[in-house]
Amino acid sequence: MSIEALRARLPDYARDLGTNLALLIDDPALDGEARWGCLVASACAAGEPQTLRAIDAAATAAGLAPEANLAARKAAAMMAMTNVYFRALHLMEASEYQALPSRLRLNRLTHVGARSFTYDLSCVAVSAINGCGACLDSHEAELRGRGVEPTQIQAALRIAAVVSAVARTLAAEAALHPQNLEI
Question: Can you give the pTM of this predicted structure?
Fold first, then answer.
């Protein structure tokens, strides 16, 4: 499924989501690798099959290297774990848990296949979807420390917001109208 086909599947009440998705595909705030990396990572985090397949196919067609695609999926997988853990620590009132080592294996956080800029932007996007303020702050600080502009970080956040909304809308429509599911 293409991005245009994905947009066409959105109900009329969600037309703005399709417009925003089209605008993000061509947004000059990020280069191709960073933009498509954030899109793929966000689609993985959102987890809705039609959205993920369409964005993955579009990323491949746009020239996202297989290694960079894998790095985006790796960012989504690692953030799925760390976002839960660090968000829980942030929400808990007992501060002694923050002093304990996480004891979570994080060796996959190496950035093989994509620039660290792309990987960290993807982590920002996924952390926004998963609602982890601690991870958002950590990756944003890392990016800003390397001179990344706020507009570039904002672009990753916008991608996360739109992809998440598209995925949730399509999931809701599939639940309400299962007869319209893609075969």
Answer: 0.92
What is the rounded CA–CA span in Å between residue 67 and residue 136? 24
User: Which residues are identified as catalytic?
Assistant: 132, 135
Degrees, nearest 5: CA angle 87-90-94: 130
CB 121 within 8 A of CB 34: yes
What the block records as the tokens of 133 is 């303020």
- What is the distance between the alpha carbons of residues 80 and 109, in angstroms, rounded to a whole number? 12
Count other C-beta atoms under 10 Å from residue 51's C-beta. 28
Residue 8: the pLDDT is 95
What's the rounded Cα separation, in Å, for the pair 115 and 164?
24
Q: Kindly tell me if the per-residue pLDDT of 103 is higher than 90.
A: no
Q: Please say whether the beta carbons of 143 and 117 come within 8 A.
A: yes
Residue 30: burial class (beta carbons within 10 Å; 0-12, 13-18, 19+): buried
Range 118-151 burial, b when 16+ CB lie within 10 A, else e: bbbbbbbbbbbbbebebbbebbbebbeeeebeee
Residue 111 has pLDDT above 60, yes or no: no
